Amino acid sequence: MDNSTTWLSRIPTLDRLGAIVPDELDPDVVAEAWFSSFARHIGDPEKTVELLCPDALWRDLLALTWDIRTFEGSAKIKAFLEQRNSPQMRALKRKDFIELQRPYPDLLWIIGSFEFEVDNGHGSGVFRLVPTATGGWKAFTIFTDLESLANFSPAIGSLRSRRLVSGFAWAEGRRRERGIDAADPAVLIIGGGQRNDHMPYLP
Fold this sequence. Notes:
Layout: H1 3-8, H2 14-17, H3 27-41, H4 45-49, E1 52-61, E2 68-72, H5 74-85, E3 90-104, E4 107-118, E5 121-131, E6 137-149, H6 167-179
Parallel strand pairs: 1-6
Antiparallel strand pairs: 1-2, 3-4, 4-5, 5-6
């Protein structure tokens, strides 16, 4: 069986899930109930994976692994939570965005977003919930992303320097910074594939 056939067989259609979705469905109520349990049990890997489909996918971009990793299936996700995540992911808060998406008659999910704190900074996440044969909803995919580093706020807004600089001086300063004329860079990121260009760095 090739990879394309394997992935096609994992698409969470209603037929594959053995699920029936009621006509009157409130996505916000479903998302709030699931997320409340997720936030409450994130420190307990055993209970956390009970909120996920057996073949769920969790992709992390630097927030919990300092790497770009995808964990497939509840067993690998549980091991990932036990080894890396549980002690540090906290202050989870659901954002307002919740939407029921149905690209095909036999395929639908509820997508939502959230934010959280880790030891190294602030992160955001996205979850997709699918219905189950028992009538409940579980996460089929979760994505976590490191948005900013703790104690290294970007120099924007009120944090910008108030020193007046002429256009010529500013341009010359940027040229020196980009050319690394004055000093070695604090951080050097090699490669831009897989969104490495999104990696937080110290200016």
